[in-house]
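The passage that follows is intended for readers who have already worked through the single-chain material. We present the inputs for a multi-component assembly, then the predicted structure in tokenized form, and finally a short commentary. You are encouraged to pause after the input and sketch how you expect the pieces to fit together before reading on.
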Amino acid sequence: MLTDDDLEYVERVKAGDRQSFAKLVNRHQDRVHNYLMRFVGNREDAADLTQESFLRAYRSLDSYCSNTPFGVWLFSIAHNLACDLLRRRKLVEFVDINLCIEPMDPVSDPEWCCSLSEQLVFVERALATLKAEQREILVLRDQEGMSHEDISSIMGINVGTVKSRLSRSREALHRTYKKMTKNTNNVKVGCTEFGLKNNMSSRESENG
Amino acid sequence: MDKHLTEEEISDLVDNPDKSDTVGGLHLSECKICESRFYEYKKLAHMTGQLPRLKASRSVLGEILQALEDENDMGESRYSGYKTHFVSRFYYSAVAAVFVIGISLGVVISSGSEISLNNNKEHGFSYLATFTPLPLSYPCDDKESCEYLEDKL
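Having made your guess, compare it with the prediction:
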């Protein structure tokens, strides 16, 4: 989590050097945005929350304790803000799948779709159908590569709960992924629509 | 084969590959079903890690710094506004108080001096003992007022 340099920058910001905060933003903004985007499932909300997370971090930098890596602390701020937003929209308990899939589904972007293998398209789609809390933990663990302890700090739950929630989320992703890959016809239509036809046919011709 | 591994045990093995010599790890080498699930979990975890990152807009940094600037400006103006507001309120209150006190004192002194003058002249005791409210404007050369005053005193 880039701890050492982060601490140095944090100290500089505390001493009044705002440029160091700009460096911290530069280092973490993509990771925070990616996490929030996949968690809340909406581009505008993710952008707003990213901005708000950094502002909150800046305002409460004095209360930051260096025992926790800055990245983990920042993610916990982002987590709290995202939970507040989802709670306001009552999406934490009752996830409306249509609301989640439609805005966040990057597969709908033809350029993005062409850059992915078919398997990753399935994974992306399967991930988008999961509950917000399941997506969150999978992104933190498998995409950000965070430890169970760090996830526990971010989400404010104990390590045992992290493990059980992670396993349930993996099982849910596995089930959805399997369902999707069984129905390959639908996916072929989807990929053709999104411009994968050329990629697939070129690979087929290459294979003879 | 007693029973299959739970999803939590398999997930734990995905996160800790070095646990292959534990009971769960040994079970994997004997049970094809659990082994297959383990590899599927592992493959999915790996593919989730391969998903492209959805990058933040390049303007985020600018917006954050702008928001901080605005916040600073607002804080300063709020503080100076508070000071100005406070000073002006204090100033006007003080002026109003001085004005009211001045008028009251003026009235009391002017009427008191007239009364005490009359008292001293005719009765020789303090006007305070027989103080009667008088009209604010007390023209000394007004005949009716003088008679009224004499009656009262």
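Commentary: DSSP finds five helices and no strands in chain B. The radius of gyration of chain B is 48 Å. How closely did your sketch match?
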